[in-house]
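ok new one. same drill as before - structure tokens go in, u give me an amino acid for every spot. 471 of them this time. try not to just spam alanines like last time pls lmao
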């Protein structure tokens, strides 16, 4: 991507290594040399230039740490970033190419500036993913894109806008939840511009459908959308099949990342996410004990960034629960495969069963079609077993038998998740379900009446109120 201001020696080295990575010619000695050289550079970079890391890594033999001995280093947490703010940075903000922030919905907004090296090494993986996705689907021509990001202070719009321009794809930046745009205008532009690809959060796939029905559109007849590229929260195969039942469009993950950690993984034609491996040393740890399982396995994802930009993070606990494997993907792209099953904090305990967001969503939507949204309400039961009510909103007039949908959904939840649930239809879901990953999947989808609302639930309520007022 943008490489005009990148040091030519680094640019050439990275480009050569990336080319070998993409064609699959790298062997373990080459990986070890890259990892250890980049790791040593990053460790000395942060220890010399970041006020936080000077303290955090004080007294450690940084030259003795290799990619095989990362456990000698302490973790970096989200609380560290919120507390230290600009002290995490390795350079003043004035030296950044662009400035972003986290949303601050669950704590202080943390600064996330990027310099040219950060943008170049992160966005090039997004560009390659989109190039392959569009070539497989549209051949030599480029589709019209509708970009629907969460905030102007997010990297989303810049990243995908520049990718679209470099690929020669027309695009329009539509923020339907912005008070100056709104869903009505966003839908009009999608219709008039014949947008074929919508890039945004999974919740928008349903929110757009619900708004389109409200404004009198026919989802299949009035729009040309045939692909949703999603990011920002979990998107299970069952969710994707439901979106297809509404729009007649496929849904694929295109990016897994964060403001703090950049483009961690990018999507492929098989609907899987490939780690941007040259940029990171990944670890999977037990989220409770903190014990590292190494570079593969199931647990919380920890990342050490290998690019010495303005804000590299060392052993950063992402808070995301993942499954990371070295399995080869049928699409032919390299890189470990990342399956994101939800945030660690989004796990839900129901009647003693600890359930991941992906488990609940997959069981709930497995055979449901025409669903415009769902919410899971949990109440304490008199016998100690929790009472679960699932509320589904379906597309008006959808062909499936509603009674069968309700009974089959309740059966699946009992069989797969050991949850006894009552499932009901509604024509007006709680507006909080539209907040999606703006706060968290749990805050949007779970209404837990067993305890008082936590700070995330309250933040989601505030976001929902703004959503209602602006739309």
């Amino acid at each position: 991507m943008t490489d005009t201001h990148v040091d030519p020696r680094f640019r050439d080295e990275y480009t050569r290594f990336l080319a070998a990575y993409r064609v699959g010619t790298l062997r373990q000695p080459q990986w070890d040399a890259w990892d250890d050289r980049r790791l040593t550079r990053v460790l000395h970079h942060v220890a010399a230039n970041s006020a936080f890391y000077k303290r955090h890594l004080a007294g450690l033999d940084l030259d003795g740490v290799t990619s095989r001995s990362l456990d000698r280093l302490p973790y970096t947490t989200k609380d560290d970033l919120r507390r230290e703010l600009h002290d995490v940075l390795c350079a003043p903000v004035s030296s950044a190419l662009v400035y972003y922030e986290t949303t601050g919905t669950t704590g202080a907004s943390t600064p996330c500036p990027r310099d040219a090296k950060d943008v170049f090494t992160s966005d090039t993986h997004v560009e390659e993913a989109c190039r392959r996705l569009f070539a497989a689907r549209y051949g030599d021509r480029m589709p019209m894109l509708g970009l629907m990001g969460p905030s102007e202070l997010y990297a989303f719009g810049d990243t995908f806008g520049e990718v679209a321009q470099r690929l020669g794809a027309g695009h329009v930046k539509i923020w339907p939840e912005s008070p100056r745009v709104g869903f009505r205008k966003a839908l009009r532009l999608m219709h008039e511009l014949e947008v074929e690809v919508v890039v945004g959060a999974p919740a928008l796939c349903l929110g757009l459908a619900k708004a389109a029905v409200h404004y009198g559109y026919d989802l299949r007849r009035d729009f040309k959308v045939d692909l949703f590229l999603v990011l920002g929260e979990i998107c299970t195969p069952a969710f994707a099949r439901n979106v297809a039942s509404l729009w007649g469009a496929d849904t694929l993950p295109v990016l897994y990342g964060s403001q703090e950690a950049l483009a961690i993984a990018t999507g492929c034609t098989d609907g899987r996410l490939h780690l941007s491996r040259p940029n990171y040393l990944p670890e999977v740890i037990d989220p409770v004990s903190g014990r590292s399982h190494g570079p593969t396995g199931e647990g919380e994802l920890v990342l050490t960034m290998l690019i010495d930009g303005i804000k590299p993070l060392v052993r950063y606990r992402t808070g995301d629960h993942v499954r990371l494997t070295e399995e080869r993907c049928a699409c032919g792209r390299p890189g470990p495969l990342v399956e994101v099953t939800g945030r660690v904090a989004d796990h839900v305990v129901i009647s003693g069963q600890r359930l991941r967001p992906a488990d609940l969503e997959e069981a709930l939507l497995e055979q449901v079609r025409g669903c415009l949204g769902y919410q899971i309400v949990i109440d304490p039961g008199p016998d100690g077993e929790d009472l679960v009510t699932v509320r589904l909103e379906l597309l008006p007039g959808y062909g499936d038998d509603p009674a069968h949908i309700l009974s089959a959904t309740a059966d699946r939840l009992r069989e797969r998740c050991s949850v006894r649930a009552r499932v009901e239809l509604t024509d007006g879901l709680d507006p909080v379900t539209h907040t999606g990953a703006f706060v968290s999947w749990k805050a949007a989808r779970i209404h837990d009446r067993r305890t008082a609302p936590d700070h995330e639930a309250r933040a989601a309520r505030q976001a929902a109120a703004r959503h209602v007022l602006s739309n």
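Residues 116-138 form the longest helix (23 residues). and btw The two ends are 35 Å apart (CA to CA).
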